[in-house]
Amino acid sequence: MLTLTCRLLTILSVFIGTTVLALEAPEDRVMLTVDGNISTTNAVGQALFDRTMLSDLDWQTIETYTSFTKGLNRFSGPSIASLLEAVGAQGAEFRAVAADDYAVTISIEDAKKHGAILAMEHNGEQMGIRNKGPIWIVYPQSEAEAESHKYYVQMIWQLVRIEVLPQAG
Ligand SMILES: Nc1nc2c(c(=O)[nH]1)N[C@H]1C(S)=C(S)[C@@H](COP(=O)(O)O)O[C@H]1N2
Ligand SMILES: [Mo]
Description:
169 residues; binds molybdenum atom
């Protein structure tokens, strides 16, 4: 009986896993396009996300210092890990591209390890395009870490696109 229950649970979790992996089409304005080395799409070669879809990912609130703000600031948004999982990203790095064409390559392992998020709210307010929004990649950092060049160059604001890079070699 126990084995049967276990088996049913396995089948069920596989089923739920598959359901979660399917990505519905956005119903609202697209805020983020993910492409490249991904297995889950809702357009040809792309995973398009509107605000609701991003809000449904693993939403996190962090309190952090950044090189661009004063004192402790609160940021909320989906974890990068959950976005990458939702699109079935395969690879070691992604290229993040902003509306102003600024771009930076980010290590997936590093972003996951540090719990970086796609911040969409700053101190409880949605971020507009004039305030580094609507999406800003933010790493949780201490006051000292916030001055680390390695991380502040990765804090790309006005993020519009993530390209998961093919595995090297
Ligand atoms: N969208 C966007 N994000 C960006 C940048 C940019 O030009 N555009 N510059 C990056 C780099 S190289 C650094 S050093 C800092 C620059 O911040 P500052 O322009 O406030 O000095 O933000 C990072 N994030
Ligand atoms: Mo920079």
